[in-house]
Structures are given as structure tokens and as C-alpha cells.
Amino acid sequence: MSDDAAPTVRKIIHVDMDAFYASVEQRDNPELRGKPLAVGSAAARGVVAAASYEARKFGVHSAMPSVTAARKCPDLIFVPPRFDVYKAVSQQIREIFAEYTPLIEPLSLDEAYLDVTENLKGMAVATEIAAEIRDRIKTVTGLNASAGISYNKFLAKMASDLNKPNGQALISPKNGPAFVEALAVKKFHGVGPATAEKMRRLGIETGADLKSRTLEYLAAHFGKSGAYLYGIARGVDNRQVNPDRERKSIGAEDTFTEDIFALKAAKAELAPLAAKVWGHCQRHGIVGKTVTVKIKYADFQQATRSRTISHSFSCEDEILQHASALLETAFPFRLGVRLLGVTLSSLASQRERDEQQLRMAV
Predict the structure, then answer these.
(1) CATH number for the domain that contains residue 125
(2) What is the UniProt remark on how the cofactor binds and its stoichiometry (predicted)?
């Protein structure tokens, strides 16, 4: 047998729950089924966390201000989120995934990548695995899931949107490059509005346009993302499904009922946020060295301030002290502040930090 045998084509599935939070609420309350539903607060400063498909027909979507959502859909029903319930259902779904493969990379509570190239069921056809997983999810949770199947993560993610809700789609190695060429770059997963607008200004509006640019050109205009964009324009994405994906940050934020203009009042709002972040660190044995303060103004424009210290933060008060100092650098505020957030990053486990300190002490 030749040493130049063709490499194994990977079989990647992206599973995405359909309107997850809203579907859980409709499952648990039959009176909500078939009605336009938003998970979130109806308060003036509320934000939609999730919208049912009935609400989406009116243009309601996640992250939309609740007042805008109610204006678009006067019959919209708001229900408060129940994150403990969503996490419990998500765990049920993860257990189903684990029946098929240990290579599971969760992206959030409601979606994950699965590498089923070699799977625990010994099934040869990835589309059959995806269909079986979706059936199992429906049986166990009563919820619908959609799936995308392809030979890499980017295309599997794109495929999962093609037949939503409650469907699945395959993008084969044969069809992958042509699929990407015909796709508008603004629909590419990972290309946000700002990048899409920059591409438009450069005359890049489709995958074919992107493919026509050289690697050097893309690196010059998009930095480290250039190589990734060069690859996906050709249907190439060599990222592995990473079951040990590390959490990059821990954060908490709060939207206020009235805009804040005074520094003292704003600092007071940082205390409970620092407490939440530190509480999560303690529960999960995590520490971090970078603190970031997020400020959202009355016109929804955002600003951030970050600081990295030489050692990991050791207590809630230390996080609060640095967050407060960062907030001071943004004062006087350009407008009233409607939201503040505190995030900890440059994370490591408590054990890793302790081991590092011991090595330094020797």
C-alpha cells in the first residue's frame, strides 16, 4: 500500500437547538405554544434573550431591546429566563452526544460540534448519525434540533442553518468550494457586520470575491484572520473539534432602569458585578489576571477599559478596586450609562496558579 494514501475525510456535525430558550418555555407551558414569545424582560430597559419562531416572523430577535420587539410584535409575550432549567436540558443533550463520540466541542448551551469520523456506534454515515441524534433529543427532551454535516467545522456550521427549523443538511467535499463561492460573505459564520462592511468597501461581497484575493492581500487587510479567510474561501478549515475548549473569560453585566451620570453611582454598580465574577471563580477553581470594564451608553455605543496585572486576582475586592480605577478613566461619561459589565480573562485554574507560585518560591 502506498505511503501517499489519501487522508481521511473528517465527518463533522454541528447540532443547533431550534429557538432553544423559547422552545423550552413553550414545552413547559402549553398555553405558550404557537404564540409569539420572547424570553427576557418587558421592562423599558429589557433585552430579548431569545425569540420563538412565531416572534421571529415579526422581525424579533435576540439582543433586541424589548421596547423595539414589542413595537414590532404587539402580541409578543414576555417570559423571564430560567437559566437553571436551560442548563439542565443542555446537560441532557450533551449526554446524548456522548453516546456517539467523546469529541464534543460545546459552543453554548444550545449548540456544539461533534467529530463522528470514528464514533462509538460504529456508524459509517454521518447524516444517519445526525438524524439519530436529533431523534434522541426529541424523545428525551421534547425539543427540536437542526444539524449541519460536512467535512469541516465552518461548513458544518453553515449547513445547520440551511434547513432550520427541525432539519438537517449536508455539504459534501465535492460541493463545499462551490457552496462557499456562491455565498454572501456577510452570511459567513465569524464575519460580523463590521468585517462584512470592510469587505464590501474592498469589493468583496461573495465567497468568489474573497477567493480571488491573495493570502498576502487578506493578511494585509485583516491581520491574523487573513489566513483563515483565505482557507474558508476555498472550503478549507483545518480546525479540530476541541473537547477541552477552555473558557476565555468570565463576566457579569447589568442594565439599569435609569441612565447613570455620576461616577460614584456607577462605581456602586460595579460591586455586585465583581462579586458575581469572583463567586464564579471560586465555584469553579478559576483565577485570572486581566479585568475589563464594559460601558454601554444611552445611544447603545460601547467602550471598554482593560488592565492586566502581574499576578492573578486574589479576591473580590482586588477585582473591584481595579475595575473602579478603569471606570474613572472613562469619566466624565460622554452620555448617560445604561449598562456596566465586569469581565475577568487571562484565565487559569487555581491549581495551575498555586503550582506556578510554588515553582517561583523554590
Answers:
(1) 3.30.70.270
(2) Binds 2 magnesium ions per subunit.
Q: Is the pLDDT of residue 97 over 90?
A: yes
Let me know if residue 208 belongs to a domain: yes
Q: pTM for the whole thing?
A: 0.72
Give catalytic residue positions.
111
- Numbered residues of the known binding site for Mg(2+): 16, 110
| Three-class SS state of 167 | coil
For 66, 122, 159, 179, 189, the CA distances from 173, given in Å and listed in that order, are 42, 22, 13, 10, 18
SS3 of 189-258? CCCCHHHHHHHHHCCCCEHHHHHCCCHHHHHHHHCCHHHHHHHHCCCCCCCCCCCCCCCCEEEEEEEEEE
Task: State whether 39 and 68 are in the same domain.
Answer: yes
Q: Rounded mean pLDDT of 161-170?
A: 96
Q: Residue 242 domain-assigned?
A: no
- Is the Cβ–Cβ distance between 149 and 126 less than 8 Å? yes
